[in-house]
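Posting for a labmate who doesn't have an account.
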Amino acid sequence: METGDTVGTGDNVQSGDTADIGDKVEAGATMEAGGTEAEGMPALYTVESTPDKGKGTFATRRITRGTCIISEAPLFKMRNKLIERNIAQNAIAEKLRQLSKDQQRAFFDLHNQFPGMGAFPGIVKSNALPLNETGKGGIFLQCARINQSCIPNAYHEYNSNTGQMTLYATRDIPQGEEITINYFWDTGPVRRKFLREYYGFECVCAHCKLPAAEREASDAHLNEVYSLYDVARDKDYALFDPLDSLHVIHRIWSLLNYEHITDIRLARAYMNGFDLAALNGDAARARFFACSAYNELRNCIGENGVGVQDWKARMNDPKLSPLFGTTHRWASEPGDMCTSKDVKEFHAWLWKLEKKANNMDAGNGFPELV
């Protein structure tokens, strides 16, 4: 990643808050080193210079949502706190000595946003991505070239089962468009301040270039989403007032759809919906929410992503959840699901709404059960 546009591994970095996600089966093979898909297939991306962000990664052909763009093992791993200390110089030097000459050259070709730290620690802090291993980060030569956007078109996550960092397209990416990720999941002003202070750059993504009124309106929607997360996952509140809890999750879902967000945050909304329905013995809604969570997770972290198969199992039998039937307030069976093909009628049933949906309720329709 360039001009500091990289996910570091400082203690307070929140990039890639993990969860699991999708509306269709994972499409596309994993990327081989050098940016080619499977043997004999054309490359999905190329690394080129940009006017204002150093180097960037661009789609060489249309990439459909749910495609795995990159899957790579780390060049090496390091503890986060070590990166911030002077002793990192010797520790990194030792790791570099174990690499081939080509790997060493590739490491030194990465951007160093912190030259004052020295070459080794500066490059690591500028380019390290967090792992799902407490307190550790890793250097990934391909993923390090992916720049920041507040409205990214891809999602990255470390798969601890395979030891690979994966990058999946979270929406269709046209040929020639830059492939981007979000380095810091938070509200707009907080995110921009963090990027400026921690990474030393001003975000120049399409969202940050919007007219102030449009950007502030979008930021307000996401601020509301983040403010509602605690309520959405509060299981005590889900038992105390399940209808209001469902409407909170619906509000999150509506705002995400209004902002055309189809990344891990949408999966989390469905996961919260599943927990709520399961708690209250509602197998019909639980099955739909599990199906949606499973589909969305596949699009973000793949069929083999951590936890994805658990959601497939819940989709097939929502009663597998240890939460299921804590109360029987909404007791139903999977076959009780609304069968209407009218989107508004279906969502009125799903979210327990009146027949008329408001302007934010149209969404993207609903996936078929598989």
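Reply:
Got it, the structure tokens are right above this. Residues 54 and 167 are 21 Å apart (CA to CA).
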